[in-house]
Amino acid sequence: MDSGSSTRPCIYRDRRGVPIRVGLDWNTEYAGQLPVPQLFVAHEIGEYVYSEKSLDDQLRLEVRAAVELAYGPEYQTKEKTDKSRLVDTVISWGKELFCDLFAVCLIGPCYTFAFIESFDLPNLLDKNGAVAIRKPRPPIHFYPLHPSHPFRVKYQADLLKRLEWWPQVRNIDSRYVRVLDSLSDLADSDFIDADDAGTAPLVEAFFKIIPEINSHLGKIVRSLDVGVHEFGQLREPITRYLREGIVPSTITIEVGNQRSQQVVPSSITLLNCFACFYLEHVEKLMSRIEGQDPDSAEQQAYWVRKLESWTSKALEDIALLKEP
Fold this sequence. Notes:
By secondary structure, this protein is mainly α. It has helices spanning 36-39, 41-52, 55-71, 73-76, 80-107, 109-118, 149-162, 166-169, 175-184, 200-221, 228-243, 267-280, 282-287, 297-321; strands spanning 9-13, 19-23, 251-256, 259-263. A two-stranded antiparallel ribbon has the order 1-2.
């Protein structure tokens, strides 16, 4: 994604052989936040894969059948251009969902956290920490070119659970995690806008082709190591390094019998450790430093930028270590 900044991209393959591009100079426009444009590159890679696999063509027949079934006899009364528009809308929704889920498989929950931040989805939570689906901001309805943002997060949350990422992040004390948990509990039918009778059948048709989207995704990523095992092993030592302001390019871990071993973490582990630290530990880091006020937005942004610089330096080091 072109963020309009002077971000220098680093393009390389991680230990899984997957091409990863990560901004090394974080966009100053987003300083103090998750690096949303950089993490959304995973969605763009999903678009490339979707196109290479010609999934539009593979889904079209199923989508047309689902739309026809959802509209019933009314479908046959529509003009040919209207029929095509309905089918194209559902295909567009399916593409966006596929790319979201591919991104989650590729880089894990850091993509979902960036998505939640980008669309300000913590505003969905009421004072009790549950999703207030009647609240007008952010909207829960579907758009012409993409599904509802909360709906997309619901399916990302469901996938994170299937990929066993959820036990790694569910205990983070953050509104982002509460959004994931609350949206995951909603049924698909909760996303049908009762006040928009014209769109409701289209949304129902979309629901019918989601299993097919998941099937295509499964075939494409079935041999992919999503990185959750390594993350679980290295999260604690990487967090310890970040707390001390140490760049975690190479970390030392205990391997038993009073022996230690040096390990180079993958880019996926680093990105997710950064995201989790951002959500959970920045204020704790500040509280240890004299003269820093965790309630100061300006000071907090400064330390998030420091965290970004440590993480981007580690990513840069990893890229150099992997060069022949």
